[in-house]
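A note from the maintainers: we've had questions about how concatenated examples are separated. There is no special marker in the raw files; a new sequence line simply starts the next protein. For clarity in this README we add a label.
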Amino acid sequence: MARTKKPTLAEIEAEQAEWQREEQARHADTLAHLREAIIPKLERLGVVKVRLAYSGYGDSGAFDFIDYFNAAGKTIYIGSNGPDLDYEIEIAVEDFLPDGFEINEGGQGSITIDVAKGCLAINHQENVVETTDTTKEFSF
């Protein structure tokens, strides 16, 4: 039986660095798409902020809802633009979802697109199960 060569630390670090470069490139492409294709649509509708809530556990996850806000901070209805724009935004930002947010106990959070500031922010909470062991011993 042939043995598989165990990767060196340098090989592992090089692979991780390549993965990070690829992720940064994907994020740059997504941000460019937001800036060039989605933000102008939001501006025409009077939207200054978009908030997408997401959650996941047990190996599945999804966006829960999207809210659009005007300059006064009030939620606004974007009419017939809603379903198509919702979908376009979800597809654009899904790459920013934290890896594994839908695994096991999962996690939840929100992604906020600030049209006025030109930025995207992620607020994420990860669910963790904590186990505390106690041992007692009695003599007889």
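[label: protein 2]
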Amino acid sequence: MGELLQLSVAEAAARIAAGDLSATEYFEAWQAAAAGDELNAYLCAVDGAAHEAGSGPLGGIPVAVKDIFCTEGTPTTAGSRILEGYEPPYTATAVRKLDAAGARVLGKTNMDEFAMGSSTEHSGYGPTHNPWDVERIPGGSGGGSSAAVSAFEAPLAIGTDTGGSIRQPGAVTGTVGVKPTYGGVSRYGLIALASSLDQAGPCTRTVLDAALLHEVIGGHDPLDSTSIDQPLPPVVEAARRGDVRGMRIGLVKELGGE
């Protein structure tokens, strides 16, 4: 099992697609890892085994989902006791896209209540701990997702970022956290903190895995009026390139700080 958990998502997806790795065995390995959660990274498990692994780009890959995404028939609390026991009647577009890509939801992850925080100490269900040092924070508000990925309790996860809630936990836990361009990923079914800034995005262990996840959840959604009505850029192709020579890179001078 330990060997399976060490695979990148790109490697595991390729082996599952080729028939060299059982999707069931792979999911069960991650299910066991998540069940041993001592970081309070998860708020609830989801019986992803009940859904057949699809044949899409993430076929058979488990994913942890920040508990700010509505998931039909599964508790969605946004880290608050106010919503304890609430089961939405619909599923967020980003999660539906994961399902269509063959991914299997592993569980819902802890967060600062209604995403109001940057440490995941302010969840109604207790704080999440940093896997590198349990006396320290994992960042927030999406610390549950980043802690789960960093601790090898999930191969990848999705979170949301308003002012740093994916990127800051990524920096604190040593994971790859990306805030896509606003409107690049649908906000439909996402419990809002600040609708003019919120954006869903990936939390992974490698840049390529982040690109694979982004390419699945991104793109136009007619259910979201702020969704960008343009084709999604080829982020996986860019991540696989591996050589930045000849690329044009923009730098915002005002963000340089000291």
